[in-house]
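Bug #77: duplicate submission created two jobs. Keeping one. Sequence:
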Amino acid sequence: MRVTDLSSNNSVLNTFVAELRDIDIQHDQMRFRNNLVRIGEIMAYEISKTLNYKEKSIQTPLAQHQVDLIRDQLVTATILRAGLPFHQGFLNFFDDTQNAFVSAFRKYTSKEQFDIQIEYISSPHINGKTLILADPMLATGSSFELAYKALLTKGKPEAVHFACVVASADGLAYLEKIPELTGVHIWCAAVDPELNNKSYIVPGLGDAGDLAFGLKD
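Kept job's structure:
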């Protein structure tokens, strides 16, 4: 498993992540969603550097021109509901990607104990394709693991990328121990040091779904 932490090099990405975290800015849901979109766009650009390309000849008004274009068949997946704006950022850059959606949520068995439940999946076949699974928060790692295993019922991808805004060090360590994820490339905009007793990322940014779309019952 390979991890790329984009915060290791300073860029405008720092601004977007800082605004997601800032409690004085978080009340603006539109701005929160827009920042998730923009981070998705940046990650799509970075991931695009790792894809396979093929040469194509195009006709300009003046001459033939050779250009390298993405050869991979992409499937971009996200976990409902928090992942929707983040997912849109990838769609803005990968025009021809197919799309997949997985419903995953925490089902609490006690005040602090929970299991991740997968209720719904909508996905094309992913055999031989490049799969990008995007979700803003990688806390324990269980949602990514189970969503990925649910997507594997649709085939075996040639390459796999996990994309998140904020990951916990504990979540990354958990995923690293899973043999099926050996070839996965994980992309993060930030890596935070710990989880609290409710398995929320610290310092984190709170509940991304609530901040993007409003409180739920």
